[in-house]
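Project outcomes to date are best conveyed with an example. Our students and postdoctoral researchers have been running inverse folding experiments weekly, and each run begins with a structure described purely in tokens. The record below, which covers 743 residues, was selected by the lab manager from last quarter's runs and is presented without edits.
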């Protein structure tokens, strides 16, 4: 399949080896270091670093107890016991059967309880219907890890969720770490030890969904670990991401995730992987309402708002794919391919139709297919007829493949400094030409640091060129579909671009409250929605510009206020329970005289009385025009806590749904990236002769709103600045309206 280098390690090599069990039963160093870093807290009291659990003794224990062991044929526990015995022998662990009524199991002396074992064990595998009564016994025996296979917990509904909560509480009190419940034997699978190169570490919440990745071993891809997390009453996906990212043998982490136990823990784990340069590829179900319901019924977890999950993964470099086939192909490529030398992709084929088709798909997916230089095209035409296109895609017409010219063409393409990836789609076998083409690609791949990919399109898959030549290569990435190849190559280039510039946002997250926070605290009203006037005072506290305005309670005062603010003015009703003023006719714009202001005051107060709306006054505001209306806000996500959104604003915000979201903390680069995701981003650059707006000011507002979200935390249930009028370049941005809800 693919290459043999992982890249530069970013932490001390021996520390990572010890932490991941490369030396049997080595002393643990990682927990001491990470306990210190995990104690660093942000401004809201949350950790800024992921603690790495010491899972060495879980995957490579010195001793194992099988509670509920059996050798009675026909019983489920018998097959599990037999598999655990085989696994313990492979990893060099001493295995002790435990059963209250058996003297022996498979010829091994059986103890009535864990307390009666001759030594303290590292791992207890619980083959019992209810693991809760056993937890205290394990704690007293100082067992470090336990695995609970039993089902009937949160995946079954409220009663099961309550039972799982009791189990989690017992585990937390005990001090041991638990995998499960509702897990399986995947952690104890047999992994091939004859494969070289960086490995894939696998995490799945549904064991069967990891089978396609596990079987990559049959294609020559190394697998090092499999963590079937089940219901995650204790150990969760984030724990294993943190651990695997420190293992020197792991080249990529592949995940099948149904629900995240804790969003913050997941982000900290993803951050740790990003710091280490270890790519994480994930299938995360729940994109649709149906998928989310199914996920909840299976593992009993929140799936979160999918847009937030998607954004959070992108922030920290987690590569999200949709299918298990994409998961296996993308993880295999990322685990084993060397760092790209360039981002240019060249498509090379023996058919103009194949090359054009693949190139269209690749370009549409965002891959860069540079036009080869005139000099390079002349060189290629030494071996390819002049009437064929060699600009990119390169069409050789077929005949050069069968002789010495085939290798010359491949080497010439790979020698181009702008080319980082060569992709050769072979839509079907046509011996002997396809056999020689495959061999030339494999031989060329051995002499270059650049990525060589082949798409073998035959539905049969038993051909010698595929099974032996291509799959026998550790340097060629072989795919079966165009789509999977394009997805994996894009992820490969995106990951290395991300890794080259990654700076952890947690390193720059505020540790102490700002002076703005103290001002804002005094303005908060727990359990209430703030009036527009009060919400704008909150924005002022954080240095966000609002228009000149005064809150008045009489017609005469409104006229005086208008004179101070300056005509033309806008007048709006202001009240704590007033969210949608325009729909009720409680906004008047473009008032240019005292009489208009006086009349508007009376009309607004009359409407408010008629609608039964309680006001704290009427706002007389500076009228701000000639800008782009945006929305910037804060909402609380069930998984990740406060999130920041920016998008096109105004009265059509709920119609357009053109918005981008991020999870704090994030830096200026992510704030600008949010704007780049908007479909209407061209409005910021100026359209139909309009000038570009002050994007820097918009970014600054987003970052100040993020600071509010971080410091006020759960106390700020919702913030909505709509519209935020972004003025011409260099003129700033003004929050024309605001809504804030306090917890």
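After processing, the design step wrote out the following sequence:
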């Amino acid at each position: 399949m693919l290459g043999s280098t992982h890249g530069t390690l970013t932490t001390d090599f021996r520390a990572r080896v010890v932490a991941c069990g490369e030396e049997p039963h080595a002393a643990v160093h990682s927990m001491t270091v990470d306990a210190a870093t995990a104690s660093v807290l942000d401004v809201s009291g949350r950790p800024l670093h992921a603690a790495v659990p010491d899972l060495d003794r879980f995957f490579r224990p010195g001793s194992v107890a099988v509670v509920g062991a059996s050798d009675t044929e026909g019983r489920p526990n018998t097959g599990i016991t037999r598999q655990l015995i085989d696994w313990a022998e492979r990893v060099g662990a001493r295995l002790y059967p435990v059963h209250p009524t058996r003297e022996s199991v498979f010829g091994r002396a059986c103890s009535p309880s864990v307390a009666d074992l001759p030594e303290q064990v590292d791992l207890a595998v619980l083959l019992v219907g209810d693991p809760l009564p056993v937890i205290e016994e394990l704690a007293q025996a100082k067992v470090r890890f336990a695995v609970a296979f039993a089902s009937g917990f949160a995946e079954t509904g409220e009663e099961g969720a309550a039972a799982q909560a009791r189990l989690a509480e017992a585990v937390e009190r005990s001090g041991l770490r638990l995998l499960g419940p509702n897990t399986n034997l995947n952690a104890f699978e047999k992994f091939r030890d004859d494969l070289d190169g960086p490995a894939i570490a696998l995490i799945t919440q549904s064991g069967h969904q990891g089978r396609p990745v596990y079987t990559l071993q049959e294609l020559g891809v190394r697998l090092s670990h499999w963590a079937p997390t089940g219901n995650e009453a204790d150990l969760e996906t984030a724990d294993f991401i943190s651990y695997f990212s420190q293992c020197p043998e792991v080249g990529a982490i592949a995940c099948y995730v149904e629900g995240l136990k804790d969003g913050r823990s997941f982000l900290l784990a993803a951050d740790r992987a990003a710091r280490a340069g270890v790519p994480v590829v994930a299938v995360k179900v729940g994109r649709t309402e149906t998928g989310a319901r199914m996920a909840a019924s299976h593992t009993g977890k929140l799936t979160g708002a999918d847009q937030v999950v998607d954004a959070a993964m992108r922030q920290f470099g987690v590569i999200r794919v949709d299918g298990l086939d994409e998961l296996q192909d993308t993880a295999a490529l990322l685990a084993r391919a060397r760092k790209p030398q360039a981002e240019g992709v060249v498509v090379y084929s023996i058919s103009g139709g194949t090359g054009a088709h693949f190139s269209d798909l690749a370009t549409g997916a965002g891959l860069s297919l540079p036009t080869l230089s005139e000099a390079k095209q002349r060189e290629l035409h030494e071996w390819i007829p002049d009437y064929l296109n060699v600009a990119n895609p390169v069409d050789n017409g077929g005949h050069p493949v069968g002789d010495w010219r085939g290798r010359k063409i491949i080497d010439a393409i790979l020698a181009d400094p702008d080319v980082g990836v060569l992709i050769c789609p072979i839509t079907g076998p046509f011996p002997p030409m396809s056999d020689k083409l495959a061999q030339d690609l494999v031989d060329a791949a051995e002499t270059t640091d650049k990525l060589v990919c082949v798409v073998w399109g035959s539905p049969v898959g038993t051909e010698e060129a595929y099974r032996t030549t291509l799959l026998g290569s550790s340097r060629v990435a072989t795919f079966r579909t165009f789509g999977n190849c394009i997805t994996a190559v894009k992820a490969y280039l995106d990951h290395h671009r991300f890794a080259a510039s990654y700076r952890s946002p947690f390193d720059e997250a505020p540790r102490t409250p700002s002076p703005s926070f103290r001002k804002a605290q005094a303005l908060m009203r727990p359990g209430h929605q703030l009036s527009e006037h009060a919400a704008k005072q909150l924005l002022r506290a954080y240095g966000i510009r609002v228009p000149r305005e005064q809150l008045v309670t009489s017609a005469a005062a409104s006229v005086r206020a208008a004179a101070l603010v300056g005509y033309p003015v806008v007048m709006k009703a202001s009240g704590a329970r007033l969210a949608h003023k325009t729909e009720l006719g409680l906004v008047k714009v473009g008032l240019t005289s005292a009489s208009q202001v006086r009349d508007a005051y009376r009309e607004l107060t009359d409407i408010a009385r008629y609608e039964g709306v309680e006001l704290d006054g009427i706002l007389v505001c500076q009228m701000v025009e000639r800008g782009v209306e945006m929305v910037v806000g804060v909402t609380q996500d069930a998984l990740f806590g406060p999130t920041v959104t920016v998008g096109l604003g105004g009265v059509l915000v709920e119609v357009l749904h053109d918005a981008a979201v991020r999870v704090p903390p994030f830096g200026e680069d992510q704030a600008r990236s949010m704007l780049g995701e908007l479909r209407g981003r061209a409005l910021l650059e100026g359209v139909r002769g309009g000038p570009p707006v002050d994007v820097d000011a918009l970014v600054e507002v987003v970052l100040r709103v993020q600071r509010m979200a971080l410091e006020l935390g759960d106390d700020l249930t919702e913030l909505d600045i709509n519209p935020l009028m972004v003025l011409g370049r260099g003129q700033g941005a003004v929050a024309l309206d605001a809504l804030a809800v306090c917890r």
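The chain has five domains: 55-179, 186-336, 344-501, 515-622, 628-742. The chain has 27 helices and 28 strands. The training component of this project remains on track.
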